[in-house]
Structure formats: structure tokens, C-alpha cells
Design brief:
Keywords: Membrane, Transmembrane, Transmembrane helix. It comes from Escherichia coli. InterPro entries: DUF2645. This is DUF2645 family protein. It is a single chain. The protein is mostly helical and about 110 residues long. It has a domain of about 55 residues. It is built from three helices and no strands. α1 packs antiparallel against α2 and α1 packs parallel to α3.
């Protein structure tokens, strides 16, 4: 039983890391990191408008969080409550990571 729970936690951590990397590498089109000077900050480079970021975030959420939501519903239906709560927690972490990548980095620029 403990081995199964540890495996579920490990799988969830891998999913969170994969999701963060995919959002950062493929879905965050508002990145202009190549324009940063050494010692510069993120506020000195152009950023995409809020409407475009919302569209990008919704596309990323659809493709990356849909499998997690399906897993959550399956675990709830099968009454596997430990894994259900692990996946709900990972969904929250993925949402916070997505918020950070699309809006949080720019919070102190305005």
C-alpha cells in the first residue's frame, strides 16, 4: 500500500515538472528572454497583451490539464481518495505554475 502511494506521489511530481516545462517551452509565446541584457530584469523587455496571454493560458490549460482532470474524476469514481487528493493538489500546483509563467513574472512591472 505504501509503495503504491509513493509511486502515485512520484508520478504526480513528474507530471508537475513536465507541465511546467511544456508551458514554459511551448505555450508561453510571450517570452523575449533573448532580449535581456546581462543584469537586466524582465520588466525591460516587451510583453504580450493580457488578452493574448489569456488565450495562450487557456490553450495550455486545455492540453495539459485535461488528462489530470480525467484522472481526478476517475479516482473519485473509483473511490481511491488518497490518489484523488494527490491529483487535486497537483492540479492546484499546475494552475499556480501557469499563473506564474503567464502573469506572475510581470506583477511588479506595472
Amino acid at each position: 500500500m505504501l509503495k503504491k502511494q509513493l509511486l502515485s506521489i512520484f508520478e504526480t511530481l513528474l507530471y508537475i515538472m513536465l507541465t511546467y516545462w511544456l508551458i514554459d517551452a511551448f505555450f508561453a509565446f510571450n517570452k523575449y528572454d533573448w532580449m535581456l541584457d546581462s543584469g537586466g530584469n524582465i520588466c525591460s523587455i516587451p510583453s504580450v497583451s493580457g488578452e493574448d496571454r489569456i488565450l495562450q493560458a487557456m490553450i495550455a490549460a486545455f492540453f495539459l490539464l485535461t488528462p489530470l482532470i480525467i484522472l481526478i474524476l476517475r479516482k473519485l469514481f473509483m473511490r481511491e481518495m488518497f490518489e484523488f487528493w494527490v491529483y487535486v493538489f497537483s492540479l492546484g500546483i499546475c494552475l499556480v505554475c501557469g499563473w506564474w509563467l503567464f502573469w506572475g513574472r510581470f506583477i511588479f512591472c506595472y
